[in-house]
C-alpha cells in the first residue's frame, strides 16, 4: 500500500477507504491531502477509493449531459487528484457485493461513504405507474450510457412533458428537444445518437409549480436552451406572475434577476417572431410552463395519453397555491425530474424518508443515534441531493475536519493484509487508475476513428466515443496484474 502524502515520513500513517469515486469522494480525498495535519507531516495518508462502476468520476461521467463541456471539464481537476501517489482507485468493486463494511473497517482507520444519490425521487400522483411514465434520472443514465441500464429508450411520442424546474429537468428537456446531430461533437455513443436521431418528439413541455422567479435551475442551464438549433422556445404570458416575494428575490438575488430577465426577453422576442411574416417556425418546440402543478397522468389501455395540471397562483411570499382550475395536456410521455434519492448501503443505517445516511456533520450514526467510530459520510448521501457539484467541497471539508479530529483515538487497523489480496481471493476483477488511463485513450481513439461526420448543421469532428458495455470497460481498464502490497 502506498503510504505517503508528504515528503516527511515521520507522521502516523492514516489509512482511509472512500466508498464512491465521484466528485464527493475525490474532493474528500483531496481535502485530506491538503489538511494541515498532512502538510505538516503529523499524518501520512494512504487513501483507497472504491466504486461499483469500472470508471471513476461518478456523476460527472454518468449524471451530466454530454453537451455540458464546461461541467465535464471538472474531470480535469478531479484527474489531478487521482494522479497523486497516495491515492488508489478500485473500480468494479461494490460494497455489499464484493466487500463488506467489516472488511473495510478491519483494514482502514476510517471509512467515508460518498455514494451519492442515483435514483429518482418518487412522485405520488395517480397514473404515475402508466407505461410512458419515466424517471428523469433513468433517462439521464440512458443518454449518458450507464453500463447497467437498457440500451433502448422509447422515443415514439410526439409531445412529452417534463415535471420539475431544476437543472436536471432542463437537461432532460434539452436532450429530448435537441437535434441529435448537435450532440455528435460530444462523447455520445452511437446507440444513443441513433435513437435520438430517429426520435418522434416535436414538442417538449416543462412544468414548474411556481413562477419564473422561483425556478431552481441556474442561468447557465437556462441560457443553454437557446443554443439548440431549429428549436423554438415557447413561453406563455399568463405564466409570468410576480408577487411581493418575487420582487424581493429579483432585487436581492442577481442569479434570479438574470434568469427572470432572460425569460422576459425571450417573451418579447417570441412576440416579435410571431409578428414577423417571414419567420420560419422551427421543426421542434420547447415549452416552458410556470404556475402549474401535476395532478394526474391520464391514460388509456395502460399507456400515458395526457397530463392534468392545476393552475397555481403565488401566495405573496414566493410560494404557490392551487386555484382549483385544471388543464389537460395531450402528451404521450411524462418524465419526472423532481429530485434524486439515495439508496441504502449494506451494514449502514439508512433514513428511508430522506434517502440519506443518518449523520451529524458527517459522523455516521447507528440505530441508537450514536456516532459509529471511524465511519463518515459526505456528498448527497450525507445531506441529500441539493446544491451543485461545487457545493460538495464545503460539505467534504466539514466531514474531513471531524475525521481528523477523531483520528488520534482511532485504534489502528486490525488486518494488515492489503485489500487487493482479499479482492483477488474472492475472484473480483477490479479496475485501477492506470486502467482508466487506458480506457480514456481508447475512447479518444474511437472518436478519432469516427473522424469528420456530415450533419444537417455542417460537418462535425468527433472527439471521443464513450464505451458502454461494462465488459468492454473492464477489458480495457482492469488492473494489469495482482501486485500485492508494494
Automatic annotation (TrEMBL):
Its cofactor is FAD. It is an enzyme of class 1 (oxidoreductase). The keyword Flavoprotein applies. Keywords: FAD, Flavoprotein, NADP, Oxidoreductase. Its EC number is 1.18.1.2. Residues 15-195 form the FAD/NAD(P)-binding domain. Transmembrane segments: none annotated. InterPro entries: FAD/NAD-bd_sf (IPR036188), FAD/NAD-binding_dom (IPR023753), Ferredox_Rdtase (IPR055275), Ferredox_Rdtase_adrenod (IPR021163). It catalyses: 2 reduced [2Fe-2S]-[ferredoxin] + NADP(+) + H(+) = 2 oxidized [2Fe-2S]-[ferredoxin] + NADPH. SUPFAM superfamilies: Nucleotide-binding domain. The keyword Ribosomal protein does not apply. Belongs to the ferredoxin--NADP reductase type 1 family. This is ferredoxin--NADP(+) reductase.
Amino acid at each position: 500500500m502506498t503510504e505517503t502524502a508528504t515528503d516527511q515520513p515521520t507522521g502516523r500513517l492514516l489509512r482511509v477507504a472512500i466508498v464512491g469515486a465521484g466528485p464527493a469522494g475525490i474532493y474528500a480525498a483531496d481535502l485530506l491531502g491538503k489538511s494541515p495535519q498532512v502538510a505538516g507531516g503529523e499524518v501520512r495518508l494512504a487513501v483507497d477509493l472504491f466504486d461499483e462502476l469500472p470508471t471513476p468520476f461518478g456523476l460527472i461521467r454518468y449524471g451530466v449531459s454530454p453537451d455540458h463541456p464546461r461541467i465535464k471539464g471538472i474531470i480535469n481537476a478531479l484527474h489531478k487528484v487521482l494522479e497523486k501517489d497516495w491515492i488508489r482507485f478500485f473500480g468494479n468493486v461494490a460494497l455489499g457485493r464484493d466487500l463488506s463494511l467489516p472488511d473495510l473497517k478491519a483494514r482502514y482507520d476510517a471509512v467515508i461513504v460518498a455514494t451519492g444519490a442515483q435514483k429518482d425521487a418518487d412522485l405520488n400522483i395517480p397514473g404515475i405507474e402508466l407505461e410512458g411514465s419515466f424517471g428523469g434520472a433513468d433517462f439521464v443514465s440512458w443518454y449518458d450510457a450507464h453500463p447497467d441500464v437498457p440500451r433502448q429508450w422509447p422515443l415514439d411520442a410526439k409531445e412529452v412533458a417534463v415535471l420539475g424546474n431544476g437543472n436536471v429537468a432542463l437537461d432532460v428537456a434539452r436532450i429530448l428537444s435537441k437535434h441529435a446531430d448537435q450532440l455528435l461533437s460530444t462523447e455520445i455513443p452511437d446507440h444513443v445518437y441513433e435513437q435520438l436521431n430517429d426520435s418522434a418528439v416535436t414538442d417538449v413541455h416543462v412544468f414548474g409549480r411556481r413562477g419564473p422567479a422561483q425556478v431552481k435551475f441556474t442561468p447557465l442551464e437556462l441560457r443553454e436552451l437557446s443554443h439548440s438549433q431549429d428549436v423554438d422556445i415557447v413561453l406563455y404570458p399568463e405564466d409570468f406572475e410576480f408577487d411581493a416575494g418575487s420582487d424581493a428575490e429579483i432585487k436581492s438575488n442577481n442569479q434570479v434577476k438574470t434568469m427572470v430577465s432572460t425569460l422576459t426577453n425571450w417573451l418579447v422576442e417570441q412576440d416579435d417572431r410571431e409578428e414577423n411574416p417571414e419567420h420560419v417556425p422551427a421543426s421542434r418546440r420547447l415549452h416552458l410552463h410556470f404556475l402549474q402543478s401535476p395532478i394526474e397522468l391520464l391514460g388509456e389501455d395502460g399507456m400515458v395519453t395526457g397530463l392534468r395540471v392545476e393552475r397555481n397562483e403565488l401566495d405573496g411570499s414566493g410560494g404557490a397555491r392551487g386555484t382549483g382550475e385544471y388543464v389537460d395536456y395531450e402528451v404521450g410521455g411524462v418524465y419526472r425530474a423532481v429530485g434524486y434519492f439515495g439508496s441504502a448501503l449494506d451494514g449502514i443505517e439508512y433514513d428511508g424518508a430522506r434517502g440519506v445516511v443518518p449523520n451529524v456533520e458527517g459522523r455516521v450514526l447507528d440505530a441508537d443515534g450514536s456516532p459509529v467510530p471511524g465511519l463518515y459520510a459526505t456528498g448527497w448521501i450525507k445531506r441529500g441531493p441539493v446544491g451543485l457539484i461545487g457545493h460538495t467541497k464545503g460539505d467534504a471539508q466539514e466531514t474531513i475536519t471531524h475525521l481528523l479530529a477523531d483520528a488520534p483515538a482511532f485504534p489502528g487497523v486490525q488486518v494488515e493484509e492489503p485489500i487487493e489480496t482479499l479482492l483477488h481471493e474472492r475472484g473480483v476483477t477490479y479496475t485501477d487508475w492506470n486502467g482508466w488511463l487506458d480506457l480514456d485513450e481508447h475512447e479518444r481513439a474511437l472518436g478519432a476513428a469516427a473522424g469528420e461526420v456530415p450533419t444537417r448543421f455542417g460537418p462535425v469532428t468527433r472527439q471521443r466515443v464513450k464505451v458502454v458495455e461494462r465488459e468492454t470497460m473492464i477489458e480495457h481498464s482492469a488492473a494489469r496484474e495482482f501486485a500485492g502490497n508494494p
